[in-house]
Specification:
The two termini are 22 Å apart. The protein has helices at residues 18-28, 62-76, 100-110, 129-134, 150-167, 183-188, 209-216, 251-274, and strands spanning 5-13, 31-41, 46-55, 79-84, 90-95, 117-123, 139-141, 171-174, 193-198, 220-227, 237-244, 278-281, 284-287. Strand 6, helix 4 and strand 7 (139-141) form a beta-alpha-beta unit. The protein is α/β, with parallel strands linked by helices. Helix content is 34%, strand content 30%. The strands form 3 sheets. Strands 7-6-5-8-9-10-11 form a 7-stranded mixed beta sheet, with helices on both faces. It contains 8 helices and 13 strands.
């Protein structure tokens, strides 16, 4: 980048003049807007905005820019964040014994398709330590036996939080991490953890969902990426996709198609998060694609 670049995200009560005030502020401070998107929600009466801009020669320094914008944000009652566009968010991946999403994310990371740093992979099993080693990423085995007492689960999750603090983690991705997180960990991860799971029409829960779907003769299968909350699989949805299937496909064929959809949906959600394209709107999200 020739000039420092930033991504501004904000939300506030909808009111006249928001775009004018923001664009005027940037112009007055020697900034050039590269792209901008906004959305006013008539239901929540909230306004959302994302602006990617460059600080050109003769503009203020970083500290002055942030201080001056804080004054505007207070006056307009913005909930705003100003991100350095050059910074690569630090992502921790968590996985159990199903590795297609992990493998896909690591390939995208290594190929430069995901602008992130991955300082740690966490698993309750040892299945993917060699995969982690092939990418030169530290692998942390935090076992949790089936039916383990609550104290053991909390101790294991405390280690997860410790790793997040040690590595300065910005985002946790549950890449088929097959453990129900405690309310305490969900709270600690609020707004910075993404999960992926199958979502069928109709939905099938429990063991062998693809076998259940095959038995019912579904015609659509899909996947959902969402933020992690204390309500299991009910956090704000970020991305979904589906594929058509038919009666000639067996359960294994459905599973293979489902794995592909899960990889794509999760990768999109992670990419949009690290590009600061997702803003939460109550139980929903606004995604500036």
């Amino acid at each position: 980048m020739t000039h420092p670049e930033y991504i501004l995200t904000l939300s506030c009560l909808d009111q006249r003049g928001i775009v004018h005030r923001v664009s005027g502020f940037l112009a007055e401070h020697g900034c050039n807007i590269i792209d901008s998107a906004q959305f006013g929600d008539p239901e929540s009466r909230l306004f959302f905005m994302r602006v990617h801009f460059a600080l050109e020669d003769g503009g203020l320094g970083d500290a002055e820019l942030r201080a001056d914008f804080a004054v505007l944000a207070q006056a307009m009652q913005f909930k705003a964040q100003l991100h350095d566009a050059r910074y690569k968010p630090r992502v921790m991946l968590m996985v159990s014994k199903i590795g297609h999403c992990l493998n896909d994310l690591l390939f995208r990371y290594k190929s430069g398709l995901l602008p992130v740093e991955i300082p740690a992979i966490v698993s309750n099993h040892m299945d993917f330590y060699q995969l982690a080693a092939s990418y030169n990423i530290p692998f942390h085995h935090l076992p949790l036996a089936a039916g383990a007492p609550a104290a053991a689960k909390l101790a294991q999750e405390a280690r997860v939080i410790e790793l997040m603090d040690t590595h300065g983690i910005d985002l946790v991705v549950l890449a088929r991490y097959m453990q129900i997180l405690s309310p305490q960990l969900c709270t600690a991860l609020g707004g910075r953890a993404i999960n992926i799971h199958h979502s069928f029409l109709p939905s099938f829960k429990g063991a062998k969902p693809y076998a259940q779907a095959h038995h019912r003769g579904v015609k659509l299968i899909g996947a959902t990426a969402h933020f992690v909350t204390g309500d299991l699989d009910e956090g704000p949805i970020i991305e979904q996709d589906v594929e058509r299937v038919d009666h000639a496909m067996d359960a294994e064929s459905l599973s293979a198609i489902g794995r592909d959809v899960e990889c794509v949906v999760l990768a999109r959600a992670v990419k949009w998060f690290v590009e600061h394209r997702i803003l939460q709107n109550g139980d929903k999200t606004v995604v500036f694609k």
